[in-house]
Design goal:
Largest sheet: 5 strands, parallel
CATH topology of the largest domain: Rossmann fold
Low-confidence stretches: 127-132
Oligomer: single chain
Helix content: 25-40%
Number of domains: 2
Shape: globular
Structural class: alpha/beta
Number of helices: 7
Length: about 240
């Protein structure tokens, strides 16, 4: 796999290059400092995949993704801002890494890339380094040095807050340091995204009020975004 790192910050490029050096099957890594250089490197370096920052001067990551020539390299966005996740996936991103991400999170992104490249080539993808397990049944939340166990069955809805997810339960709302996208991928199909900043336990939705918001069984009100409405209705109909 040939990988292009696109980030306007040198420390971020250096860190990702060091992390990628631990991954098997990477034959070449190149870098670009901005969107314009990225598009030039796509033509000259011919990467299989791009790790792409979102906010860069002049030409941002979303513009780069929209300007890639066909057949386009696979795109993984790597950014410190979670607000761009929805447009990133609208741009057909394979994954969305929220800085600072660790080696385990990078491994999952690399496995998705390997599977997609193998599918393109008609091959069988290699087995993941960390096999996916059953949906999580409990989460560990550390606050002020104290680690609590939160049962997934007690969570009613999820809400993003910067680099955290608020776990709304009946009587509490602890903060988990993780992205909403990553957490949803670990919880199975019980939760459905209903807003760019929220997801809801489908079984607890009681009605949709006149303001277009979701009302849960205990009266909690959860926002419903316009672009998520069709998927949520389809999930409710099932």
């Amino acid at each position: 796999m040939r990988i292009l790192i696109v980030d306007d910050e040198r420390p971020a490029r250096d860190r990702l290059r060091r992390m990628l050096a631990q991954e098997p099957g990477i034959t070449a890594v190149d870098e670009a400092r901005d969107g314009i250089e990225a598009l030039e490197k796509v033509a000259s370096f011919a990467p299989d995949a791009i790790f792409l920052d979102v906010q860069m001067p002049e030409v941002g990551g979303l513009e780069v993704a929209a300007s890639l020539p066909a057949p386009a390299p696979l795109v993984v966005f790597a950014t410190a801002f979670d607000a761009y996740a929805v447009p990133a996936f609208d741009a057909n991103a394979i994954d969305y890494l929220l800085k600072p991400f660790d080696a385990a999170r990078l491994q999952r992104a690399m496995q998705r890339l390997r599977e997609r490249i193998a599918a393109r080539n008609g091959a069988t993808p290699p087995a993941p380094a960390l096999p996916p397990g059953a949906p999580l049944r409990q989460l560990l939340v550390t606050e002020r040095g104290v680690t609590r166990v939160i049962r997934v069955d007690d969570i009613q809805w999820l809400e993003t807050a910067d680099n955290y997810v608020i776990l709304h339960t009946a009587g509490d709302a602890p903060l988990l340091r993780q992205t909403l996208t990553d957490l949803l991928s670990s919880l199975g199909g019980e939760f459905v995204r209903c807003h760019r900043r929220a997801a809801v336990r489908l079984a607890l939705v009681r009605k949709i009020d006149q303001q277009g918001r979701l009302v849960l069984q205990d009266g909690a009100v959860v926002p419903l975004g316009r672009i998520f409405k069709a998927d949520l209705y389809a999930a409710l109909n099932k």
